[in-house]
Amino acid sequence: MAKKITQLGVDVGNKQVKILGDNSDVAIYPAALVKYDTIESMVDDTKLKNYSLYQTDETNNAPFLWGENLAAFGANVQETKGTDFTRYDDPLFKNLVLAAVASYVKEQNAKDDATKVTDLAIETGMPTAHYLDPRNGGEKGESYAWLRGKHVLTIDGETLTFNVTDVEVRPQSYGTAALFAKTYELDFGETVAVLDFGGGTMVFDVYRVTEDGMALLRDFNIQENKGADVLIDNLVRAITAEGVTNPNRNNHSKIQDMLIKQNYVMRVGIGKERDFSDVFQREINRYVNNLLDNINHAGIEFNTLAALIITGGGANWVNAEAFENRVEMVYRFDQPETANVRGFYVDLIQD
């Protein structure tokens, strides 16, 4: 009897890791780890219950913590941010990917009526500039060659063994394009653009509908390596210019949280608050207009696009109306931060 191959989409961003597989909902984790030996003396068993302890012999022998609210460990938190191809050789990055896959396997195996997950086919992505860089081998899947094969990990003392039979690597924005093509019927030859506002990377890509699916038009890629962080930094400076100079009130983390919650009221003193909605809207519009200028300079004609899809975690912050007089259709999925991983999974199960 042939083994069942479990399908799993994995999206590793600079801020978060999203995974979606058979019989599951999207799971979102931080794109960071904490080496256990750096915080062992700081924590007791009660605090450890809030996290999971992982260990693998594949990239190093040191156990590491993974879970929500890792920021509590301060400078001991190690992030996997990277703006070039070297990110994919980093043992920290590999541990993060393995932790995501192993967490899915553990969750599935714990279900009462579950068939144990032993073999997985994975689709994942990377920023388009990384994907196209010949040093990276993204198009050939070379950056993820290490993920194919057998893996053994321990999570909180439980040993998990699984085999990755195949890894399909795509441009990150491909997931959103594939999901859109599944949602709407597109004519052969039509083009759609994806504007992916990630926390650490902003990508603009154009895809054409072909007999083989959504094909990337390589000449129209725009990528900024700071992504939505550029907007956040601009807002910090703008609010500083408004007189809020206390870094405990006006900082990158606080501004990001205000954007996510779309609550633009800030404490500016003891018992004092101020609504900065006008400042936020001004800076968002400025950011979008600069982006549109860059797209125009790249020679992309909006009136030739069937749709512009705004995706990524930063998509919730951007006013779609800024684009509506330039393109036939502007679309934003619900929960746009998970559109790429949902598209990777859809693409897998369609094959």
Automatic annotation (TrEMBL):
One Pfam family matching this protein: ALP_N
UniProt xrefs under CDD domains: ASKHA_NBD_ParM_Psk41-like
Designated name of the protein: StbA protein
